[in-house]
Fold this protein.
Amino acid sequence: MIQRKEYFERLLGYKDKKIIKVVTGIRRCGKSTLLKLFQGYLLEQGVADNQIIAINFEDYEFEELKEPRKLYQYIKERIVPERMNYLFLDEIQNVNEFQKVVDSCFLKDNVDIYLTGSNAYLLSGELATLLSGRYVTIEMLPLSFAEFVEAKGNPDNTEQLYREYIEDSSFPYTLNLEKSQIKEYLKSIYDTVVVKDIITRKRVADVMMMESVIRFLMDNIGNQLSTKKVSDTMVSNGRNINVRTVEGFIVSFLESYIVYQAKRYDIKGKQYLKTLEKYYIVDIGLRNAMLGNTGRDIGHILENVVYLELIRRGYEVYVGKLDDVEVDFVAKNENGLKYIQVAATVREEATLQRELRPLQKIQDHYPKCILTLDNDPIADYEGIRRMNALDYLLHKVEI
């Protein structure tokens, strides 16, 4: 098992706190493994077997527990009195009215609750209302580049490993597969997400249309898009689809964590804009499996990887707009902002000046940098740092 240290530490920080821990993320990103690692830790710390109640609702053994009354009775019968009990409910969205069961368990002082789900839909509606202020979300992604390098055990060959990372996959289990098996595995993940999390739940009638939209988003990572532009492109290709349908599909992709959206931020006006978002795919290998190897798009692929890394590190990430120029990322956290340009290379002077220009126009004093694949020493252009993106991904340098 790959030790997902950052996620594990976050879970550990909430242990025995009167708050529900909800781990979300795309299927097969490692949520169930994280719970197993945590259960192993509890046993090592002296927690008895009978204090751990673990149910995976994708396991047919627990099929009858998808009925909420039976689930509650099952849990209630296993709670050890006067001891802390650790309740793990994996893929909880498969249970009807699971919110009521979770709420009832939460009312007990000696139950520490951990949930996982593969769809953001579980955090909307009744759960958000019923458990408002009583749960914390840990959003999980497939392996970071640093985790991938650690798992490969070859930290001296980072450029080759980066090529493998973007050509193969960041999904943890692909490390156990032969290269020839990865594409088929990724397509099975895609099919599961599309069928279980979108088509069935949303009752999608025109599956081919929906798949055309997601392929279009995959093919246009890092490009500014509006739902109207997506719709117009589909129509020009002979598909009859309206803006509202496109919006519905995109919401489903976002809820299933297969696609991520970066909204735009007006740097001068300090306000959020409602149009021309950018979209990024959860795993470049998945994109390759669906579209064929698109390694030619090196700059946008790097941009995608950096976007996900910023999300992993807890930033809110936006596309920056400043007058007539665009900043690839405005990364925001409790410490303020960071402005980031991403480019495959800036060794040509014209390219360097093009990437510097948006950052030079920003008048505040927050950190500004350009991340590239150029294996060159860090450079400074009047406070704007240019550094190697792989060094940043491996935590060797910070913005």
The chain has a mean pLDDT of 93. The chain has two domains: 5-139, 145-393.
